[in-house]
Amino acid sequence: MKYLVIIFSVLYLAACQSGTLLNSEADILDVVLPPQMLTGNPLITNNEIRVPSFAITDIQKEEFEQQLLTLEPQFVLSEGAHIQPVDSVRDFRNPQQFTVVSQDGKWTKTYTFSFFSAVFDLNHFSFSNYEIAETSNSKKYTVFYEVSNDVKFYIWSSGNAGFAIMTPEDASPDVYPTFATVNGKEGSAAELVTRSTGSLGASVGMPIAAGNLFLGDFELAKAMSAPLEATQFGVLSLQNKPEKITLWCKYKPGPQYVDKNGNILPQEDKPNIYAVLYEAKLDANQKPIKLNGTNVLTDNAIICSAVLSDEQAEYIKVNNIDTDNYKYIEIPFTDKAVAFDPAKQAAGKYFFTIVFSSGINGDLFEGAIGSTLMVDEVELFFEN
To answer: Which of 95, 185, 208, 299 could bond to 376 as cystine, CB 3.0-4.6 Å?
Structure first.
């Protein structure tokens, strides 16, 4: 056995020296667009690139469409990988596909690259629009979207893409923390369940994953290294200052609350529901910086917020999550540090998010496995 190990080591070193051990990854890691384009950060998943457009006025929209006509994005790829066929100028008014070939030539991955309007103008959400997304390695989970003027708007995100890293390929969509249920108040609804992440999740200090659903984006690249920053909250809003949010929901806490180290704590899990309107700060390229899991309820740029109270959390509890009735609640908005400015609203400075979670401390990776929040018929009311 000793001689076998020595021979293998020699062969391995020789292969490294000869350059025959090539990288097998075929990923798009980042996209670089012209700085003058009115876009947010590209959202990259296992097989899709979506770029939000912040063009608001007719002039901005016309300029943006002209930029899409002859656009040549630059890609940051896995080491040694290349795009086939060779990248060239394309018309991005329609989605474009790019195939990445690994350095060793044995693996490929095809990405669909598209732009979408990030302007938020809806006030009612029934969670009747959803589809099953499939990753490049055949994992499937639910994605909710909205429809306006026959156009799909993928403004809802969840942590499902991160959970997929720790999930078997044959897992059905309802094994994920966030999925659609036909058992809604009216038709379908969103069902959020706190799940175990198994041995892999526990090994990196993330033993559970609370079901979550929010207006914004989930940055998969940060899911393991900076999970709180992976949740990019908010969509561009041109609507008036919100007055209240109403919804039908119900909640069943899981049987045993544990911390991120697996210690059982003498407390009961609670749901987390809130909405936030804020003024986005700008980065060096004058791009909006979204709030994330580290500051979404505490940042000094928040204009107003609506947060589920302890009394409401207790009220929506049920004994049987499948058969007990949904309960109606209203959550008013409370003013915060920044005053609402109609001029900034019209200029596209404001971002708005709604967040639902099956665990009050899901961002800390503690809670009760099995805690379930079901949400339907969400409506927003605005000041005149």
So the answer is: 185
Between CA 211 and CA 213 the distance in angstroms is: 7
CA distance 44 to 24: 19
User: Pairing relation of β-strands 124-125 and 146-148?
Assistant: unpaired
Q: Which two tokens stand for residue 21?
A: 């051990």
Predicted confidence at residue 72, as pLDDT, reads: 92
Task: Say how far apart CA 186 and CA 192 lie, in whole Å.
Answer: 17
| Inter-residue contact 30 to 94 (CB < 8 Å) | no
Half-sphere exposure of 218 (CA within 13 A, CB side): 23
Stretch (H or E) spanning 65: helix 58-69
**Closest by CA position to 275, among listed 245, 252, 301:** 245
Helix (H) or strand (E) holding 275: strand 272-279
- pLDDT of amino acid 12: 37
What pLDDT is recorded for position 16?
A: 44
Report the pLDDT value the prediction gives residue 5, as an integer from 0 to 100. Answer: 34
Which run of H or E residues covers position 306?
Answer: strand 302-307
Phi, psi dihedrals of residue 13, rounded to the nearest 5°:
-65, -40
pLDDT, tens digit, 9 for 90 and up, residues 67-96: 999 999 999 999 999 998 776 789 999 999
Whether the CB-CB separation of 84 and 99 falls below 8 Å is answered with yes
To the nearest 10°, report the CA torsion of 261, 267, 273, 274.
-80
Which residue ranges form the domains of the chain, and what is each CATH number?
21-117 (2.60.40.2340), 118-384 (2.60.120.890)
Specify the pLDDT at position 85.
Answer: 72
In degrees to the nearest 10, what's the CA dihedral of 179, 183, 186, 187?
Answer: 70
- Which residues in the chain show pLDDT less than 70? 1-20, 87, 120, 136
Distance CA 210, CA 192 (A): 7
pTM for this entry: 0.82
Residue 113 burial by Cβ neighbours in a 10 Å radius (0-12, 13-18, 19+): buried
